[in-house]
Hints:
heterodimer; A: alpha/beta; Ubiquitin-like (UB roll); 2 domains; disordered N terminus; B: 273 residues; alpha/beta; Rossmann fold; five-stranded parallel beta sheet
Amino acid sequence: MSEPVGSQLRRVFVILYADGVRFALWVDWPETHKLTALVDGVVGAVNAQEDDPQDHVEVRAADCLFFGWESEQLPVGTTVAQVPEPGVVVAVHLGGENVASQGLMLGIRSSVMQNDTYGPRLRRFLRGPDATRPAAPLFHFDAFVSYSAQDGPFAASLVGALRAFDVACFLAEMSLAAGRLWAEQLRAALLSSRAGVILLTPQSAHSDWVQAEVGAMWALRRPVIPTVVGLEPNDMPTSLRALLPHAVIATDVTDTAGGAAQALAAQLAPIVTGIRESGDVA
Amino acid sequence: MMRELFAVLYDGTAWRTGRYQTTTGETLRAVVGANAAVYNFQRAESGSHMSTDADEYDMFSWHLQRLPGAARVAQVPRPGVLLAVHRDAPSRIGDAEAGTMAVALQLRRELERDEEVSARFFDFMDTPAARWPAVPLTERDLLVSHDAADAAVVGQLVEQLGAASLTCLAVERPVLTISTEGDDWRRGLATSAVLVSVIGPSSVDEPALHREAGAAWALGRAIVPALVGVAPERLHYLLSRYQVRQIDTAQARTALASELAEFMTGAAGGMAD
Lengths: 282, 273
């Protein structure tokens, strides 16, 4: 994925549903804007063209859930650049409910396609070049956990403990699907993670693969949370010592099966959720 | 290798649109100049004239990425549309800050609205030319990363790369990521299409080698491990997945430069654009 030079706008097709389809149109919008800003902006523009205030759309994007064309729900903080191919955003205002069924999404798609105004407009968009533009990856994980295979059981305990704090982690041993190239899956997971947790242990400190994952997070400009478990600072390789001032250090590692992982998760969770909530990841 | 683009030139009063086939190594500056010249030839009797000085135009892709005049035809991102706007062209949406980009945006809309042009444009969109996998659009072709111990051989390699019309930046790989050198290196990688990782006996076991490979892998860059006095079997993990080249001799360095020049003007294949 190359870094675009001066890329600013992306054309996306926006559908707003609130007790029926309220509008369906394409707009050229700054790629870095979040979907809430996109929908509020489009609602404002649509209302500005409507003379009769009674016909205004009274919907706030903050009260909407967002979906892609394939009915996948888009996480909070999704930007215009991250709208999956074919670049269609469905904003659903549920009026108090917080669940949109698959049936509702199919119904919205169908009613837009069959509408005399929206249908031809959408078909034209789907035929054009903007519908095939690759999207920036969505964040499916709060953290990518980098570890040595020898620390697998402890890493799995940690990820399990973090899940109790509502932190979604990628851990290769648990998350890689069978039958696919693992390096490609790892790369996709890195791109889909907001931050990296690097488990630095006596086993991983000298691992070449952990070094490669550190390099990957550095290149992607993801926040890195070095997490030191059972490793004395003096045993850290020179190349990783610069990470020490930012490290989370597990103090009690005698009970690696459960207690230590839970204690570490309690230290890590606020840091990771802080990164997620700040939405400052590229 | 040849590639077909859909080129749109606009100088404020006239526009030329159409398919244009040329070699993938041609610069966009040359494409714009040639298209303007064709327009002038076709309209000679009417007196309508378009500037053929490509440096007077700003160039954009369909998705409004700014394209440098020195970029090659192979680098125009999908769907292979080149929008060239003369800097004196007035912005028709009246946004002074947006300048030529606003005009390019307007041109996109015209392409879809104008009945005659729109038919030709969507015909192009239906051809394989619109799906040609472009070479990454970056400021330069190569980042040559190396250790101080290999500086002499890198100097000779850089000469060969320049002779093959490749642009490159040679930098020593940083020991630490959190450092000024680390920041410069990362920026160098982000703005280069290919990482040439020069690996000698002093660097083959260094952790920094794996970090730089991980960085290039994450960004989807092609990686060429270029070995100096090191056997390929000594590479581990990520690096061992890439096709290596030995560059111990002048002949081998010339061959690598020639291979990379071909790579930078060919279809990108598996590389993301």
